[in-house]
Structure formats: C-alpha cells, structure tokens
Amino acid sequence: MEVIRAKSAGFCFGVKRAVDTVYEEAEKRPGTAIYTYGPIIHNEEVVKDLREKGVRVIQSEEELEELTEGLVIIRSHGVPERLCRKLEEKGIEYVDATCPFVKRIHKIVQAESAAGSRIVIIGNPSHPEVEGIRGWAGKDVDVIQTAEEAEAFQAEPGRKICIVAQTTFNYNKFKDLVEIILEKGYYISVLNTICNATRERQSEAARIAERVDAMIVIGDKNSSNTQKLFEICRNVCNNTYYIQTLGDLDTNQLRSVETVGITAGASTPNNIIEEVQNNVRINF
Fold first, then answer.
1. Residues designated catalytic
2. What is the pTM of this model?
3. Can you give the chain as a three-state secondary structure string?
4. Which of 56, 136, 138, 166 could in theory staple to 106 by disulfide, Cβ–Cβ 3.0 to 4.6 A?
5. What is the pLDDT of residue 170?
C-alpha cells in the first residue's frame, strides 16, 4: 500500500508556540499554580499530559473571577479584551500565547471599530477564536457563518463595513460569503485573515484526497480546523475517516485499498500522526 502523508499535517506555528509556552512555564515555575484559559489546544492527549504536570484548565469567566493567585496562560485562540483587563484588575499574572495571526485580527477590528466601521466576522460564532475577536470589535459586530446569514445581513447606508475571517475558516466558503455581501453595494473593506498555514493545509488535503482510495484525517473531535479538513477531504474522497488516535482506526476499512492519504489538524501532535502512519504502512 502507498501511504501519502501531508507535509502540512500537525501543529501549526501558533499552536506549537502556545503549547511550548505552557510546558516551559510549568518547568520554570514548580509549585506555582498554572492555569490555561480553556484547553491550550483542542487535543485531549496534550491536555491530559499537561494536567499530569499540574496545569489546570479554567473553563469559564466565572472560574476566572474566583482566582486570587497563580499564572494564567491565554491559549492560541485568544480571548476578549475584557478578560485581559479583568486579570490586570485582579493583579493576576498572565502570559498571552494568542497566535500572532489572531492577535493581528484583534488589532484590526479594534482600530476599525474605533474609526467607526461596522465589523463582520466570517466564522463560527461559538468558536473561542471568534468569541475572542468579537471581544475586541466594539459594539457593532456581526458574525456570519452561512449563506443565509450573509443574504440576511443589512447595514446602515454609507456606513463602512470591515470584513475579517476566523483564521481556520474554509477559504472557498469565505469567498462565497464575501461575494454575497459585496453584492449588496455597501462600502466594504475585505481583509482575508485566514492564515496561510490553514489555506495550505486545506489545499494540500484536497489534492491528496483526489489521488487516493482512502483518506485519514487525524484530530480532536472538538477541533474546528480538523472538522473542516474532514469536510474538504470527504467532498472528493468518499472513503474519508476522522480519527483522534490510532485506537479509533478501523483497519477493516483499509483492507481493499491501494493508496491511503493522511492529514491532521493544527492541534494534532506529531507522535500521534507518526503512530497512525507507521501502523498503516506496517499492517497493510
């Protein structure tokens, strides 16, 4: 069997930077209570390993409110501005491990909002990255995820609209939604803030999926970018399988195929990808 592994599979720059930050802080500060605001990445294996090193996860703003000491690490998705201010007011030290590409969007929407623009975020409204961006965008902000929402969007005549995107959003879907909004004739500034790593990962996954008999997509079930990879691959390869670890792989599904492609989301550790890749090569 031929196994084709995507070169872009696994940790992206922002995720690796955030994960490395937590491990470094845990090593530097033995005995210090260390927290991450939300799981540092959407990967159960990594979160479990950090828990064993004493790193705890804060799941809500209410939990954050109860903190009186310790170190809080902001994950790569970022957080709303009010949470940074809250930590400062409480005098709790924090390390901002927000992905630089996400941080750039925070600065864009903050500046555009201050200049009077209405902000439109193309993305999943319940995703933590989008929640964070929204928290830097002032009061006039809309989140659009579907064509129906784009069709229904309305703004005041003459008001400038600034459109940005969740960094892991599907690029083709982003273009389609922007096109719908542009047709309304508003004064619009479009900033494609989908990161290059995401675009390359999605494009490479699609190219591989077109060539193979089966496609394996590895990533946590809660990972937005992995879910999008799965959708992209499934659109061109019917035999596409979404797994979190090797234990989820049904080997019977690969018995009659000659070529298998492997890709993985931005929050999937390299050791999990290699384990799946090696198992497929050895057993088939």
1. 129
2. 0.86
3. CEEEECCCCCCCHHHHHHHHHHHHHHHHCCCCCEEEECCCCCCHHHHHHHHHCCEEEECCHHHHHHCCCCEEEECCCCCCHHHHHHHHHHCCEEEECCCHHHHHHHHHHHHHHHCCCEEEEECCCCCHHHHHHHCCCCCCEEEECCHHHHHHCCCCCCCCEEEEECCCCCHHHHHHHHHHHHCCCCCEEECCCCCHHHHHHHHHHHHHHHHCCEEEEECCCCCHHHHHHHHHHHHHCCCEEEECCHHHCCHHHHCCCCEEEEEECCCCCHHHHHHHHHHHHHHC
4. 136
5. 87
